Amino acid sequence: MDENKPSLQQSLFHIERDNLQIATISPLSTVLPEQLHIVDYLLQFADLVTSTLQQEDTTGVIYYCPIPAGKIEYTPLFNQFLPSDSTASTLKSLILKVLAWKELNKPIVSIFTENCTDIALATMLWAGYRIAPQKLKFGFPESKYGLFTGFGSTIYLPSLIGNSATLNLLTQGKLMNSEEAYKQGLIDEVSQQQDEGILLAKKWILRNPLLISEETQQIDQVSPEAILNIQRKTRGLYPGTNAVVELVKKRASSTPIQAIEQEVTLYLEVLNRPEPLHMVRTLYYGVQDAQSPSRIRLLNNYSLKKIGILGAGMMGSGIAYEAARAGIEVVLKDVTIIQAEGGKAYSTQLCEKLLALGILNQSQHEQLLSRIKPTEKVDDLNGSDCIIEAVFEDFPLKAAVTQESLPYLADNGFFASNTTSLPITELAKAAHDAKSFIGMHFFSPVDRMPLVEIICGKETDEITLEKALTTALRLNKIPIIVHDGPGFFTSRIFFNYLLEGITMVLEGISPLLIEEEAVAAGFAVGPLAVLDEISLELMLHVYDQFPALHASQQRAYSYLKKMVDQGRKGKKSGAGFYDYDIESKKKTIWKNPTISLQSNTLTPPTIRKRLLHVMALDSYRCLEGGIIDRPIDGDIGAILGVGYASYTGGVFGHIDLTTLPIFVAECQAFYAYGEQWDVPESLKELAKRNFKFYNGFLSNWH
Question: What's the whole-model pTM score?
Answer without folding.
Answer: 0.93
